[in-house]
Please model this.
Amino acid sequence: MGKVRLGIVGLGSMGATHARWILEGKVAGLELAAVADTNAEALASFSGVQKFGSGEALFRSGAVEAVLIATPHFAHTTLGMDALGLGLHVLLEKPISVHKADCEQLISAHKNQEQVFAAMFNQRTDPRYLKIRQMLQTGDLGSLSRIQWTVTNWFRSDAYYGSSAWRATWAGEGGGVLLNQCPHNLDLFQWLFGMPVKLRAHCGFGRYHAIEVEDDVTAFMEFKDGATATFIASTGEAPGTNRLEIAGDRGRLVLEHGKLEFLRTESSVAEYCRTSSEKWRGPDTWTAQIPVDGSGEQHIGILQNFTQAILEGTPLIARAEEGIHSVELANAMLLSAFEERSVELPLDAGHYARVLAQKIAGSQQKQVAPRRGGERDMANSFGRS
Model:
């Protein structure tokens, strides 16, 4: 197997972690050739690789053929477009961009399909979600009627939000729990169930913390086939909950505490409802604990898949183009809360961009990520999400 020479832009928590994994040889065929950050101290912690003070300089150095971008959110679009335009393979941390219009610009820059363009949606490697997806695709649950995902185990303290000036501001991060913690959940949501056609969301802006962005969300979604879904997230509840419940015509599937349980009906619920003479009881059921072990290869699995896609043409686990869907869901929830109305999807990307620009204009952090080069606090780029 050959080697892929990788450069990492942004040496915050996640960028530095990726770099250490590669240096430790945990990703076969991937060589860390260069790193970029505006923070000299962050650069000094790495030896044996080329170092650059900006992503632009790294991209044009000739030192790498692929890049991992792990900067603050707003820089993902400009840095990604720049790297793609220079012919580099690109792996983006989540979210791929802050809003849908930027996602569209970024995706349109991927003109050469021989360039590998991927997103760090590592939860797609989790065997529990893979099993759920398989069961949905094979129709084990029948047609879906209701989905409920409560994911409030994202607790963060005030100290977390105070750790960087860009964090939890419209100008610095573009949102709160929906743009920082929940891109993984929202990606899994659309990956499993597809996109809704309408939603109504209520957000608490600084409900639990002294921040300007959302730290609490409750959203109700409607699908074209009549199914409905509720999505609840928060960074202010402790102890939190992470429970995904899926109700279909052939039973209920629940993922909680790492366990996947299927309460299967002996017959179609809809058919039983039409034909049964019983007035009070539903169809008979049986319960199965579906065996799933571990949490999958996670970040290292995505890095390995990215490398194999470059070297061998292996299909990507998470194409970057698919990252627009989680961003669109987050944007639609925020817009619904801002304007106190239901929002239809596909989202009007231009309208949301204008609304977000107004929020940014009044943001506590006035300096927005630059349009070129990502030259702002990359050292704190992707602190633990």
